[in-house]
Design brief:
With about 80 residues, the chain is mainly α. It is built from three helices and no strands. The termini are far apart.
């Protein structure tokens, strides 16, 4: 199931931030440590009480759509707007 508008952008932004954080945290030569951390994150994600992260993203997307919050363009100020 495709992500709701805005979620793809948010997912990509969070993924870049996570990679940057992990790269800084483990240093340039820390590929083994990076993969160990990624495995840990995966295990923690699966241990979430409501299921895995992807399921929660779908659930939140449905709620956003039900309340008309699924189109971020409606809530994003236009450039030059006061």
């Amino acid at each position: 199931m495709p992500l709701a508008p805005g979620n793809e952008r948010m997912d990509a932004t969070l993924a870049r931030a996570r990679r940057r954080f992990l790269k800084d945290a483990v240093g340039l030569g820390g590929a083994v440590e990076l993969h160990a951390l990624m495995d840990t994150f995966e295990q923690e994600e699966k241990a979430l009480p409501l299921g895995d992260f992807e399921k929660m993203v779908v659930d939140v997307s449905r709620i956003e759509k039900a309340f008309g919050l699924d189109d971020l363009a409606k809530f994003t100020p236009k450039p030059g707007a006061p």
